Amino acid sequence: MNLHFCSLHRLRVALCLGVFVWCAPGFAALVSPAPGAAPQPPYRAPYIPVNDAEILQEVPSTADPMVRQMHLLRAKLDADGPNLQLAQELSQTYIDFGRQIGDAHYVGYAEAVLGPWLAQASPSAGVLVQYATILQYRHQFAEARQQLKKALGADPHSTQAWLTLANLDMVQGDYDTAGRDCSQVAANNGYTLAIACAGNLRSYVGAAEQSLALLKQVDRGSRPLPPALSAWVQGLLAETSERLGDWRGAETYYRRALALTPNDNFLLVAYADFLLDQNRPGDVLTLLRDYAQSDTAFLRLALAKAALHSPDVPLYTWIMGARFAALAQRGSDYFGREQVRFALYLQHDPQAALRMAERNWQVQRAPWDVRVLLEAALAAGKPASASPALAFLHQTKLQDPIIEPLAHRAETAVARQSASP
């Protein structure tokens, strides 16, 4: 059984937005504005470049081993005709590559490859799990959960299905159910993954020290971990260290993870968020300068520019807005916390940010979702709107040295407003 252990870490946030389609409305205005100038909407229509030397978008190089693997598998599948094993291998390669570079197009390719088998009356558990992974990537959480239940109905011993379901539980803040699902991972011979699953879960429920100990147990096991699994564990260790306020340790783990998987979009973005919190925006520009095609990475570049008071912040803000518009135009119109941060810190519209944060809270409740709801409610002058997040924090006992002061401010503001005549 091939267990795609990266799903728990990379899909926990599930925020990869995809690459901006340069022919979408707005790009024509982006090729000519003066530095720092922000073109005004409405966006211009698609256009045909007049200069063949004009670069519209950089695509993955065929020198990339994963790109070569995709081409090879695609050619074999085309030559062999219907072949479920090849189709699943190609689909997983598309999913992994899309997550690595932050391009949502590849999960679309993955779904298309699985299409003939999804159309069958009783798809296999493996196909259903892959489809659930695609749906989760798109934040279609209810649909993903439905597919995972179907997969477990077909194969109750599917470790990957239990692991993905535990991940989904954690994304949505259902920690009791996540604990049971992590136990099912162990019960179905996924012992190492189950320890990591349980360790990750403990970082959300006020037991970050236990989380760190469990994750270190996985990291220091008797057998060397495959690079991708090791990078996943290092990333979890980094985030748990952040929960404990161990900034030096967190940075060490992020660097170790990126040494193993240097182009991993999720890790790059998570490390960039860490650097922003540490007031190191210049390091963010260095870290992400070659990854601007990823929307999640581009947003962090824009936030770093804003923190540096760069003169081209308006242009970065406009481009990010155009990217969101292009994504919405093709039906991808929900990006949760990313939209909140864009509205709050780049558009300086706390009321819009709060509306987005409240909407986001109905779908996912990871620590970053708690944080953006608190930040938006405080910025909008409506601390009572953060009450769901405050209740969640009291229930879960989440440890976080950045979230805790925000929660205290919100509680104090609510009490002050309640005491006012």
Q: Report the strand count.
A: 0
Radius of gyration: 22 Å
Tell me the domain tally.
Answer: 1
Mean pLDDT: 86
Q: Please write the CATH class name.
A: Mainly Alpha
Write the CATH fold name: Serine Threonine Protein Phosphatase 5, Tetratricopeptide repeat
Structural class: mainly alpha
CATH architecture title:
Alpha Horseshoe
Taking pLDDT < 50 over at least 5 consecutive residues as the criterion, the unreliable ranges are 1-39
Estimate what percentage of residues fall within beta strands: under 5%
Q: What composes the largest sheet? A: none
CATH superfamily, please? Answer: Tetratricopeptide repeat domain
The geometry reads as globular
Q: Cα distance, first to last residue?
A: 65 Å
Write the H/E string, N to C. Answer: HHHHHHHHHHHHHHHHHHHHHH
Q: Helix fraction?
A: 55-70%
Number of helices: 22
